[in-house]
Amino acid sequence: MKKWSVRNCALGVCLGALAGCAGTASQGELPTFPATESATVRDGTYPNIDSLRLVAPGLRKHQVRDLVGAPHFNEGVVGVRAWNYLFNFRSAAGGTIQCQYQLQFDNERLVREVIWSPASCASVLDADSGRSGAITISGTDHATERHLVLVSDTTFGFDSAVLTPHGQRALDGLLAKGGRGSQLQEVAIVGHADRVGSDATNRVLSLQRADAVKAYLLSRGVPASAVRSEGRGSREPVVQCGESSRRALIECLAPNRRVEVTMQGVSGEMAATP
Asked: Looking at the structure, do residues 127 and 192 belong to the same domain, yes or no?
């Protein structure tokens, strides 16, 4: 039986098995994947891992296209509720692993769920896998790092530094993957903003968001001595946008409004088994 995995974290991403919210398809329905030989992009592509980590519930279709390109199958355009991709990754053994990647959209054309087939492919977003560009398909990997990217539009309101319940759940999921917060040796939190507004305002907002994440982690038992936070304003964008209207520009720049969390110092079983 083919295994699959649903990821429903805010840009998130547990990197070692990165942002790791795995589960079942909505309403208990098993996802359906198209036959790989029907892909319009022959043999699939090798995606940019950092861009792939930024795909999360709440993104719009044009934002997904900016990050990972157009879908690889002939799904059509009007009323399409799922986009399918065929991605290739280098395996830890030196070969190539091919994975199917599906995005399901809601009635507002926002990403609702992210699904992998086989399920083990989800580990490509894990910290150690991402650093080397390789994916471990079986076995045990005692990695010591987890990474999560929180997209601000789903974990903070626009122009806000108040962490939402969605963002809190994403952080709880990261802590659950890493073990008890008191075991952590180092937690680096980096806030980012988009280019809307002044540089000074964006630096302050990015730091406030990073500090909000820090405060939540401290409330969950992470020692203050292990945590450092900083704001980098808008100087490290992941997407470039040229939309003329302010509303369209703000929507396009959503992936740039993010907080990146890296946790180190906890060992455990990280690899996914097919």
From this structure: no
